[in-house]
Design goal:
Layout (H helix, E strand, L loop, with lengths): L28 E2 L2 E10 L2 E8 L4 E7 L1 H5 L1 H12 L6 E5 L30 E5 L4 H15 L43 H26 L25 E2 L47 E2 L20
Helix pairs in contact: 2-3
């Protein structure tokens, strides 16, 4: 990336800096600043557009892993920052950045959880950023001063060429995100995101309601259970009539005297309860010979218990 990529602006307005999207390996957050876009990059580090929660945009420079391990590179970076105006420097942090004139802008992260095996944090600085191409060129100048790519040689060159030992280690220096970033950046959500989320939730709720209606609308109706009739109380429970009266049979017993109506020729059965069959028994009326629904008691004889013949 170079200044050739900067966008042109109308006459009378400062030229705007060209911004590039973040890469997959770029950190999400450095210190208290969320990264938004790339501005420029050199072997010594990368410049980003960043913002603090509730703050304005800043130009954040983060040293690469190779430069962060080199004490000389860290010292050159600190010297460049200490030479700036205090209003230009918003914040700074990382290893060996708590010294010099700009140490009042240092933000330590000693309260963050660390392990013994963790490497020290890479030096970084956040500068005031107005979105102009001049600010982007200043960030590139600082980074080139660290990797000595534009520095003039001291004396006449002779012998083999000089090359920094960390120049190929261009990965980002160690950073730490605390608190963890996965709850989300709610400060950057716009009204379009909220509207789309609301419509999506409404669509899911409507589909769930439609599925519930389709599932339960064809269910068969269930009739109420019929009442179970209770058994009749009292009586013998048998539908067959039982013969009542004293004697269990309607035929006259041998030796019994019992005359019916004159001229009938057949004796009438006795209806008294002693089973004697004497002619002098009481007349039970027209229902004397009808079957009885009552169960014979202990002193009465049933159909299977004929009365004894007194003459035998």
């Amino acid at each position: 990336m170079s200044s050739d990529d900067e966008t042109s602006a109308p006459e009378g307005r400062p030229e705007s800096a060209a911004l590039f999207p973040l890469l997959d390996d770029d950190p999400v957050k450095v210190g208290d600043f969320w990264l938004d876009a790339r501005v420029t990059s050199t072997p010594a580090g990368t410049a980003f557009v960043a913002h603090e929660d509730g703050g304005d945009a800043t130009l954040l420079m983060l040293l690469s892993a190779g430069a962060a391990k080199d004490p000389a590179a860290r010292s050159r970076f600190s010297g460049e920052i200490n030479a700036m105006h205090i209003d230009t420097v918003v914040a700074r942090g990382g290893q060996d950045q708590d010294e010099g004139l700009m140490q009042v802008r240092f933000r330590g992260e000693e309260d963050d959880p660390t392990l013994d095996g963790h490497a020290p944090l890479a030096p970084w600085v956040a500068l005031a950023f107005d979105g102009s191409a001049a600010a982007a060129r200043e960030a590139e100048r600082v980074l080139q001063a660290i990797d000595l790519s534009t520095s003039a040689p001291l004396g006449a060159p002779s012998g083999p060429d000089y090359r920094l030992h960390w120049i190929d280690d261009t990965a980002h220096g160690p950073t730490r995100v605390w608190p963890l970033a996965w709850p989300g950046r709610r400060d950057r959500a716009g009204w379009i995101t909220i509207l789309v989320s609301f419509l999506l939730m409404a669509l899911i709720a409507a589909l769930a309601l439609l599925l519930a209606i389709l599932v339960f609308q064809n269910q068969p109706l269930v009739d109420a259970p019929q009442p179970i009739p209770s058994p009749a109380s009292g009586g013998s429970g048998s539908g067959s009539p039982q013969q009542g009266g004293g004697s269990g049979s309607g035929s006259p017993q041998p030796g019994e005297s019992g005359s019916g109506s004159p001229g009938s020729g057949q004796p009438e059965p006795s209806g008294d309860g002693d089973g004697g069959g004497s002619p002098g028994g009481n007349d039970g009326g027209p229902y004397d010979h009808s079957p009885s629904m009552n169960v014979p008691s202990g002193n009465q004889s049933g159909p299977s218990d004929p009365s004894p013949n007194p003459k035998l």
